[in-house]
């Protein structure tokens, strides 16, 4: 049965949630404060790179089941369900900033129909369901936690083919109503209390970050003892208790979730009287990994990058997205620039000459070969598949020296070695 749904916020989570819910047959209106963005969305212009999202937005607009508007009040007036998908940026002390959540709840509170359900989809600290309830100021409206588990680059797939759907509610009937929105999705449904649902989200991201930091630390051990991390990880992954997911060494973890959520969980634990030393160590190892990769580039350059041209392939925090937030690549490039390097970079999702402030000090080129022109070292920092199929003869021709630091262990070693390249990977 189609339900009337309002989604507050049209970022990665809000836009994907709205488009996918309309695809499931619901009548969805997405709300944003940015009039220009709303106009663009109503013209079918998608502001983010996300596989399959364009098609779902177009489908929803064509069917009339997906609309975009400015102003939350009229959008929620007849909505049975309202999703809060607004930012929760990291505060100065590591905690999540709930001001956007409070403001959104206060704005919609007076306009909600009785017995409607406000669904908190934003990643928020434990206890935030109560914060939303207070901001709404309504005793006749239910608040439910329904955390998202979307990976950028595969968010549409993750929404429509989830590993689980988690609903945190004190009212059983409200939980059942929210569960009904996901009918047709073949996934386990977990109904729990709001605090547990909120903790599940943070605990999941913290555990995945832990796996990545662990394998990066193991990669450092492999380099020290002469082992091959790829073989080590393969042997570990066969153990069903461990599995091979997120056991791939690289330049470190980043993006819009892991850094923010890891620091927030440390702060949540601290406020509750627990010193989360394990997670602090995970964060420290990740920061060390950025420096380790920068050191590898410096060593490949002969011991110093001061005045040396370094080519970089990959700027986004992962492939198949255009998101630069907390990108490991930019963390590493920043360290190289601080050491005096001249960085020329290419990324399929970043426009040449971009004026994005996060790219300050980097010359962004229009193709991968231009980035390599005159470079003494090539650093591969994002795992775009297209890098594997480039013309290595052309790369060798334009570079000043044939040195590659593969921060993703992406490239096949043999074709590089045959062309005279010196290749340095992670843990190999």
Automatic annotation (TrEMBL):
Residues 311-413 form the UDP-glucose/GDP-mannose dehydrogenase C-terminal domain. Keywords: NAD, Oxidoreductase. Its EC number is 1.1.1.22. Pathway: Nucleotide-sugar biosynthesis; UDP-alpha-D-glucuronate biosynthesis; UDP-alpha-D-glucuronate from UDP-alpha-D-glucose: step 1/1. NAD(+) binds at residues 32, 37, 88, 123, 152, 260, 325. The active site is at 257 (nucleophile). It is an enzyme of class 1 (oxidoreductase). InterPro entries: 6-PGluconate_DH-like_C_sf, NAD(P)-bd_dom_sf, UDP-Glc/GDP-Man, UDP-Glc/GDP-Man_DH_C, UDP-Glc/GDP-Man_DH_C_sf, UDP-Glc/GDP-Man_DH_dimer, UDP-Glc/GDP-Man_DH_N, UDPglc_DH_bac. GO terms for molecular function: NAD binding; UDP-glucose 6-dehydrogenase activity. It catalyses: UDP-alpha-D-glucose + 2 NAD(+) + H2O = UDP-alpha-D-glucuronate + 2 NADH + 3 H(+). GO terms for biological process: polysaccharide biosynthetic process. Substrate binds at residues 149-152, 201, 246-250, 254, 318. It comes from the Bacteria. Belongs to the UDP-glucose/GDP-mannose dehydrogenase family. This is UDP-glucose 6-dehydrogenase. The lineage of its organism: Bacteria, Bacillati, Actinomycetota, Acidimicrobiia, Acidimicrobiales.
């Amino acid at each position: 049965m189609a339900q009337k749904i309002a989604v507050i916020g049209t970022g990665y989570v809000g836009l994907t949630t709205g488009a996918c819910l309309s695809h499931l047959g619901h009548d969805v209106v997405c709300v944003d404060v940015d009039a220009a963005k709303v106009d663009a969305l109503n013209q079918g212009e998608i502001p983010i790179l996300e596989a399959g999202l364009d098609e779902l937005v177009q489908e929803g607009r064509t069917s009339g089941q997906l609309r975009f508007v400015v102003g939350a009040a009229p959008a929620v007036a007849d909505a049975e369900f309202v999703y809060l998908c607004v930012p929760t940026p990291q505060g100065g002390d590591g905690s999540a900033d709930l001001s956007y959540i409070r403001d959104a709840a206060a704005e919609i509170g007076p306009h909600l129909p009785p017995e409607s359900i406000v669904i908190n989809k934003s990643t928020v600290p434990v206890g935030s369901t109560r914060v939303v309830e207070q901001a709404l100021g309504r005793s006749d409206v239910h608040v439910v936690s329904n955390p998202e588990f979307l990976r950028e680059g595969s968010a549409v797939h993750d929404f429509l083919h989830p590993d689980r759907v988690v609903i945190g509610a004190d009212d059983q009937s409200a939980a059942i109503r929210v569960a009904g929105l996901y009918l047709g999705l073949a996934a386990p449904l977990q109904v729990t209390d709001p605090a547990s649902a909120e903790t599940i989200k943070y605990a999941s991201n913290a555990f995945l970050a832990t796996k990545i930091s662990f394998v990066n630390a193991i990669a450092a051990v492999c380099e020290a003892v002469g082992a091959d991390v790829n073989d080590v990880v393969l042997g570990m992954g066969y153990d069903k208790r461990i599995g091979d997911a997120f056991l791939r060494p690289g330049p470190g973890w980043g993006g819009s979730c892991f850094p923010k959520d890891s620091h927030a969980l440390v702060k949540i634990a601290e406020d509750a009287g627990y010193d989360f030393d394990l997670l602090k160590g995970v964060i420290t190892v990740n920061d060390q990994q950025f420096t380790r990769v920068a050191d590898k580039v410096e060593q490949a350059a002969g011991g110093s990058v001061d005045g040396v041209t370094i080519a970089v392939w990959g700027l986004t925090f992962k492939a198949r997205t255009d998101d630069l937030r907390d990108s490991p690549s930019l963390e590493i490039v920043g360290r190289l620039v601080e050491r005096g390097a001249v960085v020329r970079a290419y990324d399929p999702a970043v426009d040449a000459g971009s004026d994005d402030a996060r790219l300050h000090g980097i010359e962004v080129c229009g193709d991968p070969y231009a980035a390599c022109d005159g470079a003494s070292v090539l650093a591969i920092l994002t795992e775009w598949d297209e890098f594997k199929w480039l013309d290595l003869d052309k790369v060798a021709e334009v570079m000043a020296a044939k040195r590659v630091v593969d921060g993703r262990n992406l490239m096949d070693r043999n074709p590089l070695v045959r062309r005279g390249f010196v290749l340095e990977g992670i843990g190999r």
